[in-house]
Design goal:
By secondary structure, the chain is an alpha/beta fold. The chain has a single domain, classed as Rossmann fold. Helices cover 41% and strands 17% of the residues. Strands 3-4-2-5-1-6-7-8 form an eight-stranded mixed β-sheet, with helices on both faces. Helix 1 packs across helix 10. The chain is globular and about 55 Å long.
Length: 261
Amino acid sequence: MKVAITGKGGVGKTTITALAARRLAEQGRKVLAVDADPDTNLAAALDFPSPEEIVPIVEMKQMIAERMGTRPGSVGTYFKLNPNVDDLPAKHCIEHQGVRLIVMGMVKRGGAGCACPENAFLKVLLSHVLLRQNEDVLVDMEAGLEHLGRATASAVDGLLVVVEPGLRSLETLERIRTLASDIGLKRCWAVANKVTSDDERAFLSDHAPDGGFVGSLPSSKNVVSASRGQGSLRDVEPEVWQEIDSVLQAINSNQAVERTG
């Protein structure tokens, strides 16, 4: 399973990435979680010790410059298109409670921009991780699909878009689906989060994209507490885990259909 998780800011994609990674690890599967979001909160969500001490790869300016053949922080210059990244997953992966994690980070918009050596380097690294790793890979991304070029998209089984029960979130879903199609990503699933009532479920059902939603996670006090550092995602309510199981089952079933169809 190679899945990228994305969605509008604040919808809970990091939480869902962490829950899915935990569930897969509990099932005895080899799991690699990739934090490719500018805010790099996945380590904390996964209860890694001292997450604030983890240095994202994007901040390793000297190493990136050496691999790309540039000067640290350079913009608008020539750089290598295929830097050597073979050794980086082993060097920079850390493990906790059965989940391996690599924190990539991302160059924030308004800074160096998407054509900078750092982002080009991260795209190559992500593609390498997805193509090489013989394990389940879950990538926590921002909404812009910044790291997913056509080469990377070919290594991803699909895109899981997290939405809230609101029109703006659904509009973001449609934009992401369009971006995914533009780079050749055919499978795009949607999962609802923070659902509080049957009315919200009906709203989502009425506005569901083709294929509908693969899961609907209820609003959770324990998830909110964990996001505030006052608990762990391991303690979320059984109904949340049940929906995570439904999401993973739907993705696996869809992949089986694609492979046999």
